[in-house]
Amino acid sequence: MTERVLVLKNITKRFPGVVALDNVDFELNKAQVHALVGANGAGKSTLVNIIAGVIRPDQGRIILRGRDVLIENEKHAAELGISIVYQERSLVPNLSVADNIFAARQPINHWGFIDKKKLHEETNRILARFNLQIDPDQLVGTLSASKQQLIEIAKAWSLNSDIFILDEPTATITKSETEILFEIIKDLKAKGISIIYISHRLEEIFEIADMVTILRDGRRVGTYHISEIQINDIIHHMVGKSVSVETRSSLTDNRRKIKALEVSNCNGIGFRDVSFSLHEGEILGLAGLVGAGRSELARALYGVDPLFSGEIRLFGNRVKFNGPSDAIRHGIGYMPEDRKEQGLFLGMSVAANIAAPNLGRFSKYGWIDDGKLRDVAYEYVRRLKIVTPGIDQKVINLSGGNQQKVVLAAWLLINPRIMIVDEPTKGIDVGTKAEIYRLLDELRAQGTSIIVISSEFKELLAFTDRILVMWEGCLVGELATKEATEEKILELASGFSKGLRINA
Q1: In this model, does residue 503 exceed pLDDT 50?
Q2: Closest of 275, 267, 256 to residue 315, by C-alpha
């Protein structure tokens, strides 16, 4: 007989102006991987935060191993055998790997001091399980984003919980690291551990999950055995309609031949000898594996990081940026990969974030025209379908997809001539992805030239005119999208086929 380790009944949670969960039921069996999917704002994070003790439900029952419980806080959840790995990392950059994994629970010797030898031994044992060759004394802040994500997962794994929640665990790790993670999940399952798995990468669900529960607008749409449902059915249930992310207007045949951006022999932090051009009204993809130098190149083009050498021309004119303000004045916009850290003022309102890059439009004699600002904010909330109780809502309270829309709204307001977007659909659902594609395509149709950095090769194939591929800081290939395949991109991105000169 199947053993139910966790049962949620009629869970309801309200926030000001929003019903986040509405009488949601959920069951997790022993030694089961149960996927939880839904569009941004569907209630996934609220539900797992209730399980993890971060917030309390307004009503409903939580039955853990056959007994009703009230999970008071995260510490209580951990004591009850529940661990969670959030999409946003909780590591301390200035502490070592060992001290992060064993935070507040380092082994103590007879004199009451931290037992460094035992701490290192235990840390190495855990790192070995994840195939990580890292010095336990290395500061976490010096590791790549993907390595930090694996450290976060290793930290939770070390707690020996029997209920494990993974919230978008593969969002920032490589394909090979994902394969390692899946092997670990299978191993945990074989040992009787139960896992709740949240991911917007729906293909992963069919590889790793036994069951899937779909949420939409705070309600449970249905729960299915993974063998009973297809990916298109999941998408339909998530958004309430059929969605195709493979559609966009034809760009290649109609694009103008004017070179909006020319990059010649540029060297900078994380990249070297980069040359390419971007045409007016073109969407240019930039592919590569983690650490290839894509984001570093984008930061230099936007003036965040310096160029060591080389030349940049905008519409034939040589330019030099001493900072992002120079780039903005020249009509360049930039959506960074980490929207929370670099793209938003989380404690400020939706309206303030939309207006932030272009305050001059709303000020006169040093005073902000609040009425004008609010009118524009309302317009963009409506146009981009930003789900929010109002324009005064703090951005930190929005879902990831709606936060991304706020970032995009701010740049649409400026109407840049060149737009650089780094992982524009990272951590957002398929319905919101389609909306982001549509909005960027509208921007392109107005003549804006766009560089899209994405780790999802399917996204680049569906959405761009040309694809440039980076490997170890160098541009190693160019592919016309209509002739490209995932295999060709991966071959270049892995360094197996190098040396194609970029001179378009």
Answers
A1: no
A2: 256
